[in-house]
Fold these 2 entries.
Entry 1:
Amino acid sequence: MTIDKTLLARANGHCELCSSEEGLTEHAVAHSSASDIDHSALLCATCHGEMGQPTNINHWRCLGDSMWSTVPAVQVLAWRQLTALAAQGESWAQDNLDMLYLDDETRAWAEAGVAESDDDSAPTVDSNGTRLQEGDSVTLIKDLEVKGAGFTAKRGTLVKNIRLTNNPLHIEGKVNGIQIVLVAAYMKKA
Ligand SMILES: [Zn+2]
């Protein structure tokens, strides 16, 4: 596979996640409308092979550095892989995620890729990408109109003992004594 010269130059001939020079390949970052180098990253064989399925956990400590890349495609890969690691219970990955700021467009791109690869076992995550579990407590990060119930659940409302649903984007919880479906992305783990 011929690697795009501009991409090679941007990456300075190293894996954009771990800096390795072995088995470099052009990795198309999924679920973007374009396939130019702005939507690709130069990855080594290990990073390429384990993207989305991290098994060599220590290898992925490299994300603590590479997540600060100024290249959106690299930020997206780092965010997704950290999310996958956090879902496996790696607290350092969660700590990094908590620090990683993505602009709205980049974040939407990152999340779209995760949503597309979802299956029934996909984690339900809150607005910070923190995994939510059955029985957790969350707070609302914005006012939510509860349709049909005639009230607005205010930002900051604590919802205790949530339940997960079949849809990783939704949780169930009681607000004002009524069991309702809530959008996980508008919640923050308490
Ligand atoms: Zn690598």
Entry 2:
Amino acid sequence: MKVMEVKKELQVSAIENGTAIDHIPANKLFDVINVLGLDKLSNNTVTFGMNLKSQKQGRKAIIKIWDKFLKDSEINKLAIVAPDAKINIIKDYEVVEKKLVQIPDKVEGIVKCMNPMCITNHEYVKTKFTVVNKSPIILKCHYCEKMTEEKNIVVT
Ligand SMILES: [Zn+2]
């Protein structure tokens, strides 16, 4: 193992038990925190690193959540804002499992419909989309049938 790799492994696994989310685009860090409700966790320590150098992505962010293991449904929410994120499950300071995020076929309540006339932007109706394309992500609104593209995604 090269020195750089050892260093990287330490950087990611420096929590005892929990989840490290790696390869988040730096500008999506707060969307990820929002989507996963990390600001509402009361018993878990959450740490993050922002603007870390990444060979693949330019600048990236990492989030580490102590003593929490994300459910697949939570990981899939993450997919909408950070489709290239990598999930590391850590036990006793070791990465015991790596998971890739998977973009779900349906998205409910995470993203705003970009159509200003849509009912979801005027009444208390939870948004609902069908994922019609996964890379780049294109969402079709269940109510108004307008498309919301990845570059226009706004997290509710
Ligand atoms: Zn709509």
